[in-house]
Design a protein that fits this description.
Length: 76
């Protein structure tokens, strides 16, 4: 199962912690390099495939924008 990562907020979905954790971009890029290295050697390391997605902070920002827009509708 691939690893979800948000580059913008440097957050990684941790199965161990069962949630998003802060994780530096440079370490994530090192994992991506290792994944490509093993993949070229035909060694299955699908657990280390990093997929960039939105994180919990991205969702907070979207929710805040939606709430601000709803306030404008309620109180024009
Ligand atoms: Zn994010």
């Amino acid at each position: 199962m691939p690893v979800s990562y948000c580059r913008q907020h440097e957050r990684l979905m941790s199965r161990k912690h069962k949630g998003w954790i802060d994780f530096p971009l440079e370490k994530t890029e090192a994992i991506m390099v290792l994944y490509r290295f093993f993949n070229r050697a035909h060694i299955d390391t699908s657990e280390y495939l990093v997929i960039e997605t939105a994180c919990d902070k991205c969702e907070e920002i979207v929710l805040q924008k939606l709430q601000d827009e709803l306030k404008k509708i309620d109180h024009p």
